[in-house]
Sequence to fold (180 residues):
Amino acid sequence: MEMEMKSFFIWPIGWHSRFDKGETVRIRTKILPFYYHYTESWKVESGSKEEKPISRYFKLWPLYSYDRDGENSELRCLALCPGRNPGPIDRNWAPLWNVYKRSRAGDKVESELLWGIYRHKKDGTKKRSFTLFPLFSWERDEGCRGWTFLNGLVGRKKNGIDTSWQLLYLFKTGKNGEEQ
Fold:
């Protein structure tokens, strides 16, 4: 097994390193605190210079960050924590300053703007939803569609041939035509 490491330093401002470990290659570049880039790749063939990325992380502080691991990816606009976010900051603090976030996991795509005022979700080709809080929301699932205006002031849901309406947040008509 062949291992090779190349590094370039402009310490303490920045550094670049390439770690070649046979079938995988890791490249890391940092220019503190503004730029951080990390890539991990598989070599297509042993001894080949052609590489296929496994994971990638890029941050241009404080504007945005992009994280990709296989089929999953995430883009965040406003990334106020310099460097790569540790787990607790990602879970507890990052939602406060993320103005825009887009996540993708396979066929599932979610976008959020201005802390949830605008949301768009897509799960494959069958399930979709859109929300412009508190004005309007719309969703579609296999054979079922629905929308609401002012978060329930007026709404309609259709499931196949059955239609139900909602009025003034309280009054609903079901498939039997009875008010609840």
In short: DSSP finds two helices and 16 strands in the chain. The longest helix spans residues 87-92.
